[in-house]
Predict the structure of Urea carboxylase-associated family protein.
Amino acid sequence: MPVIVPAREGRAVQVRAGQRVRVTDLEGGQVGDVFAFAAQDVNEHLSASHTRAATSRLFPAHGERFVTDRRRPILTLVGDTSPGRHDMLIAACDPERYRALGVAGFHASCADNLARSLAGLGLAVAVTPQPVNVFMRIPVADDGRLSWLTAISRPGDAITFEAAMDCVFVVSACPQELVGINGHEPTPLAIDLLRSE
Amino acid sequence: MPVIVPAREGRAVQVRAGQRVRVTDLEGGQVGDVFAFAAQDVNEHLSASHTRAATSRLFPAHGERFVTDRRRPILTLVGDTSPGRHDMLIAACDPERYRALGVAGFHASCADNLARSLAGLGLAVAVTPQPVNVFMRIPVADDGRLSWLTAISRPGDAITFEAAMDCVFVVSACPQELVGINGHEPTPLAIDLLRSE
């Protein structure tokens, strides 16, 4: 049974070492902010900057591993049926981001979704790590400029990870509708825990 | 009077809003890991991923601002006499990095230099933020691959920042000699505090 991540919300699941976890874009064109934390100590988290150092790539290739801020492998990229556009450069959206975009009052955010999802497991982290933004399309030009393009994942496209350690895996269905990354209409995602291979 | 950052070491200085701070590569070809923290609360730090979101660039252009994890401007890039190759993708080196490179026992690292420099001011942080790696040459290929090239900054080349808030500014003269980024011979840097404009 998949765990549905409703539009604009987040969900956390616990994944055992060797287990696989799949994130599906149910309706297409939807970014997911993925976070992963060591089950033994959630202060150890998947780190984008350490992963880039480990892989010498902006985003891991098939079979390559995401590592933590202690340089330990936490997830391996094992499957991707989407067009393969994912981001590992951009911070999670947060209340400050929406305030700067002119929103008065509450707006759902990936940082807030992370905190709520972890709280549901009785967990908390001091810092929002930089997420792995699946299906997010941020191409880098030769001069280093970044473009914020609408996701081109199709309904049912999915990316699959294998856990390299017991971990807490969190997905936020990004609530950003003011910038075009989700086509101005946030939609749900799904998380599937697959059996160990 | 400049603050000399000896080869393989770090130094912290306190910078007032409006003040300028210059990092000079004294002998050339040396990477500096730069960190900045809000003076009022060092849990707020210059964040690479939030800065990329703010500037839509891999590295800010002249006149653009680095922001914190709370999206507040902390530094503005106001001068650069170097060839302009700087990195904001790669994590600070740390004991785990050198262990993975085969070093047994102690090896100086930028993460350790940061902790020691802050401790000298009676400060500590729970997490090593992703640094701004001045003079570090990590080009990104069209396919997202990263290359680790030797710094091409010349003796006396300097990059200058203006503080947008009172901050603690830390520079580590990167002790990495196993990977070629510093030409296999770490050398010193200098920090100059310039008067407000």
